[in-house]
Structure formats: C-alpha cells, structure tokens
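Entry:
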Amino acid sequence: MRHHILLPTDFSGNAWSAALYAINLYADEPCTFYFSHAWTFLNTGARTHVSESYLDPLKAKSKEKLAAIKDRAKIESKDRDHKFETFFCIGSLMDSIEIAIKKHNVSLIVMGTKGATGTQEFLFGSNTVTVINKMRQRPVMLVPENVNFVKPTHIAFPTDFNRFYGEELKSLKQLADLHKSQIEIVHINKKEQLNEKQHSNLEMLNTYFKDYEHNFNWITESGKKEQAITSFIEDNDINILTMINYEHSFVENLIKEPIIKKMGFHSIIPFLVIPRVD
C-alpha cells in the first residue's frame, strides 16, 4: 500500500524538520509526499489595488521554493520508494489542506511546531491550533522544531476508558506497524476502581491490540494531567504521543491558550492527533 502524506510548509526550519521526520518515519514504506504551500498576499501598504504584474513574481518565488524543497527531499530519500510532489494553493492553510485531501487522497498530515518563545513555553502556534480544531478528516502529526528522528519503539496512548473505540484506533495501529512499536496505554486514575463501562472499554482495547505489543499503565492523579503525561513520557522513553481528539477531550483543553501558557507540558516528541469518528 502506498501512503499519501501531506507536508504543509512555510519554508521555515521547523517545517523542514517535520518533513525530514516523516521521510525517516516512513523510510521502508512506499510513499508519495506532497509539499504544500498556502499562498496569501497581505496588502499592508497604501495600495488599494494590486496588479497581477506585481503578484505574479511573488507567486513564482514561492513555487521556486517549493521546487527546491522537493529536490532537497529527493536527496534525503535516496534509494527509497518515495515520490515527491508539490502543491501550491492560493488561500488559507486549511483551504490548502482540505483541497489536497480531496485531490490526492491524503491519509496523514505532518506539520512542524515551534518551540519555546522567550521565557514562555508554547506547545502550538496559531496555525497548528486552527488545523487541530478544524481537521476532522485525517490524523495530524505535530513534530517539534529540530527534533531528531528516533525509531519509535514506544508509543503512548492516554485514555480514560470512558468512550467506545472505533475506527480511530486504526491510525494508531498503522503507526505501530511502521516500526513494530510497543503501545503504552496510559490511564490516569481519578478513582480507585474502574466502573463497568470503563472495564468493558479496557477489555475491548486489550482485544483490539492482541496482535501488538502493548501495556496498560496506571498513574495516580496527583496534579495536572499534562504534567502526569509529561513525566510518563520522560520516565518511559516514549517516542510518539497519540491522542484522539474527542469533543471536550483533553486535547481540546490542551490547545487552549491559557493552559498552554501555564503548563509544563512541552512539545518534546512528535504528537499524533487522531480525529474522532462520528
């Protein structure tokens, strides 16, 4: 099966880091990677009308940059079954992503995230927050700036066992298949015992992952969830964090700006956000 992966780029270093991570993550898989750029012109000057003769060279410059990234990726991916295409779109980032999904049957979006800014730590930039909030069609992998690829031997999947799991888990299995990763299911205890519904969902997970190396990990809640997950990541050499973005879920709370500014949860490893399936 050939994977079709979208790599949005603003030509920044962290966008390239994300692309490089994706190329290495799928090193042994047949893939077509699409470098996409959403081009917009902000008329901040005194011009009320901007002629095509002025805009066309700007568009051409962006297309040249896309072509250069494509050539650079080909060099990085030598001798692999990888193809690279470019996709130039006039409009917003979300416009470009949605068009690419329809046009190229994209199965995964891989984006770069910015690191710490000054004395404050930010997990996501505004563009990333927009994509996570609005993207309900495909999973999105967020890759920290300057991250070095490490074979993902352990993938963390935090859950409260309160929801029935369906097609969402297919993305997690596909990710684990790439490098035969062990899935670390993490539950933060609020109560000493699970209720009947939680027990049922736990058993369903155990059955669903019966052909995969997996563990159930129990953490006693003693503070913020994001702090507990961060500690688990650091203490257990977790390489990728995955979560399902249900409505009113932890992911939804995580990307709200007031929490981001206060939290110690820093974007230290790639983070796969899986959209819920209604």
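DSSP finds nine helices and ten strands in the chain.
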